[in-house]
Amino acid sequence: MTEAPVIEIEDLWFSRNGEVILEGINLRVLPGDVFAILGPNGGGKTTLLKVILGLISPDRGTVRILGGLPRERRHLIGYVPQLHTFDFHYPISVREMVLSGLLGRKTGMIKTFSTADTVLADKALATLGIAHLADRAIRDLSGGEQQRAVIARALVGDPKVLLLDEPTVFVDTPTETQFYDILGNLARTMTIVMVTHDIGVIISHVTKVACLNRRLFTHDSRELTEDMIQGAYKCPVDIIAHGHPHRVLRPHPSEE
User: Fold this and answer.
1) 101 and 147 Cβ atoms separated by less than 8 Å
2) Selection from 57, 29, 60, 56 nearest residue 194 by Cα
3) Which residue intervals of the chain are DSSP H helices?
4) Domain 32-52+75-255 belongs to what topology?
5) pTM exceeds 0.70, yes or no
6) How many angstroms separate the CA atoms of 39 and 47, rounded?
7) Confidence bin at 242 (pLDDT 50/70/90)
8) Quick one: which of 36, 29, 32 has its CA closest to 6?
């Protein structure tokens, strides 16, 4: 029996101020996938995530998340926006930041957190290996620790799907390595979609890859082909070093 897709997008179009941002997007993400969507800056990657989250509506086309509409399933989606969108100088603790991931589920003018909420936050922190930092000020953490706190914030609601927007931008190489270790662990329990402009993210944890630059180029596998790169980046694939261990490209005939 074929598995029902976690995310299913059919013939999706989205435009802003008369400019087409997403054109005829078709995408199927299956349970257990770690799906990397590559593309240049301005190619529509963040817009696609916002459509999946139900924050914006497409001009036409359909989007189904776990069989339902995005807004109906938003509580099942964890979202990690770009790190530069966070003000890490704000005077809150790590636990308080993680708890803020539950605000969307609160009703009323005054939103308070219960003991059960705190238990969820501490569980998320433990999953990311930073439970011992719960009472520290978020501004006092290292870049790698802040990144883990942001991911814990996305996990606090126990999502079935995790969306990550440029998760390795503005982090150093050791932090990036730690992130991929985390990604591998999380992939055991949830479906992951990650968007990035960095071709070097294609690593062993990724199960499928696509390229997006208004249109989506994919062939439902982890292999990054020349046609996908040329379609999305509009440049020769030879600029990419085939020998990099994190890149999945067929070698040229002369290299075989």
Assistant:
1) no
2) 29
3) 45-53, 70-73, 94-99, 115-127, 143-155, 173-186, 226-233
4) Rossmann fold (3.40.50)
5) yes
6) 12
7) very low
8) 29
Of the candidates 154, 52, 54, the residue with the CA atom closest to the CA atom of residue 102: 154
Q: Is there a contact between 204 and 174 (Cβ–Cβ < 8 Å)?
A: no
d(CA 72, CA 245): 40
What is the Cα–Cα distance from 180 to 91, expressed in whole angstroms?
A: 29
Tell me which of 60-64, 80-84, 110-114, 229-233 is least confident.
229-233
Provide the pLDDT for residue 256. 37
Q: State the burial class of residue 155 (Cβ atoms within 10 Å of its Cβ: 0-12, 13-18, 19+).
A: buried
Distance CA 40, CA 195 (A): 10
Domain boundaries, the chain: 32-52+75-255
* Averaged pLDDT of the chain: 84
Residue 106 clears pLDDT 60, i.e. is over it: yes
CB 38 within 8 Å of CB 196: yes
Condensed to tens digits (0 to 9), the pLDDT of residues 145-196 reads 999 999 999 999 999 999 999 887 777 777 777 888 888 889 989 999 999 8
Beta-bridge partners for 212:
216
